[in-house]
Amino acid sequence: MKRRGIFLLKIVVTVVTLVMVVQGFIWPRFKDIEVNDAEGDVNPDHNVESYWDDDLDREVKFSWYVDDLTESFLLQAASWEALDIDQRDVITITSSREPCKE
Amino acid sequence: MQDKHNRKTKGVIDRWRTAVQIACVFLLNPFFFRYMGVCVPVMNCWACPAAAFSCPVGVVGNFLVRGLFPFAVIGVTVLCAMVAGRILCGWVCPFGFLQDLLNKIPSPKFVVPDRVNRWLFVAPLAFLVGAVFLVPLFLGTDSKLYFCNFCPAGALEAGIPFHIMKSEGTFLEITLELFTFWRVWILVACLVAFVVIKRPFCRLICPIGIAMGLFNWLSFLKISHGLHYWGKFFKAKLAPVKACPLDDCGCCTDECPVDLVAIRDVNKRDCIYCYLCTEACPPRGGQDGSCNCAGSTES
């Protein structure tokens, strides 16, 4: 009885996680990118990237730079994602600042 | 006959595991391929210039800071744990491999007492709940307490390479500059610990490992006490506790990468499914009353 219960629990947890995986890859798909440099401006000395924002119906530019080891992680990852925004299934990009709009 | 079998099989699993670990280092860091939409639940920083896939810790943080639930990454992590427990820790994780390698350096080794070892899971659990979930949720990912901001794996795989790439100066200048970052000191402390203690990061810090470990007891894959596995490399079985030839002789613990009393703790929360204990304590060992562990010269 106990073995059967554990087996059923295994099946239930596996199905739930499968649903979570499918759910996660279908929804949500983010449309906005919020990455800026520290000053909030697009600095030509920094690495400048851009993407097309469907909501704004315009190209949005942002810049990033590596100012220390901590920042390098998220900003670098952000730049990769920004270049391929259709594939942003499980990655999003963080910043508390508004995007720089050209 | 049994001795001959032991000598023949001794180290086979270890060698295979090392080969798989090396292969996985390159599979996870191929340099020419990148798809961050897939998350592999091992400690391999997604900001590494060579990394192909994303790290669950970073993804969870980035989702939570935006108030979103990371369905996919939690689903993938738990699913992997459900299928094969912490086998990814033992056979795939590049940072685990680094710990295994550094621990092979001849030096005085510190074995964590069993009494302490069985409570060490509290530390990574606290990191999982606090630094991975609560901090990004309430303080944001800019907080110094956020796991990625002090992760030694990230410092090694991403922070240092990026710093070297963007720096201009001599090797000495770049090196000295690196040591002005506090997380580099954390990395150095970890590297020293790796030499003298078996897999301290996995046992004390790793939030991914403990997240998967919590599901070890439900995992479909088990290291068997009695059944033969397919393939000649998995024919070695682990003797059940009652069958330990010398009543907890400690041979399996010596082989275990996380200092478990393997005959007691196999398949449990901290077990990383390395299978090394199956070599250390093969079946039918000690039928004549001797310690029949692989490699043992006792008779």
Q: Main sheet of chain B?
A: none
Shape descriptor of chain B reads: globular
The chain-level structural class of chain B is: mainly alpha
Q: What percent of residues of chain A are in strands?
A: 5-15%
Order of helices and strands of chain B: HHHHHHHHHHHHHHHH
Helical stretch tally of chain B? 16
* Mean pLDDT over the full residue set of chain A: 53
Shape of chain A: rod-shaped
DSSP strand content of chain B: under 5%
Arithmetic mean pLDDT of chain B: 79
Helix content bin of chain A: 25-40%
Oligomer: heterodimer
Q: How are the strands of the largest sheet of chain A arranged?
A: 1-2
Q: SSE order of chain A, as H and E?
A: HEEH
- Straight-line N-to-C gap of chain B: 12 Å
Summarize the structure.
Chain A is of the alpha+beta class. Helix content of chain A is 39%, strand content 14%. The model of chain A is unreliable at 28-46 and 63-102 (pLDDT under 50).
Descriptive terms for the model:
heterodimer; A: 102 residues; alpha+beta; two-stranded antiparallel ribbon; 2 helices; 14% strand; rod-shaped; disordered C terminus; B: 299 residues; mainly alpha; 16 helices; 49% helix; 0% strand; globular; disordered N terminus
Detailed description of the structure:
Chain A is of the alpha+beta class and 102 residues long. Chain A starts with a helix and ends in a 19-residue tail after the last helix. Helices cover 39% and strands 14% of the residues of chain A. A two-stranded antiparallel ribbon of chain A has the order 1-2. Chain A has two helices and two strands. In chain A, strand 1 and strand 2 (58-64) form a beta hairpin. Chain A folds into two domains: 1-29; 31-102, no CATH class. Chain B has 299 residues and is mainly α. Chain B has one domain (2-218). Chain B has 16 helices and no strands. The two termini of chain B are 12 Å apart. Mean pLDDT of chain B is 79; it is low at 1-8, 226-237, 283-290 and 294-299. Chain A binds chain B through residues 6, 9-10, 13-14, 17-25, 27-28, 66, 68-70, 72-74, 76-77, 80-81, 87-94, 96, and chain B through 34-39, 45-47, 54, 58-59, 61-63, 65-66, 68, 70-76, 78-79, 82-83, 140-142, 144, 148-149, 154-155, 158-160, 162-163, 166, 181, 183-184, 215, 218, 220.
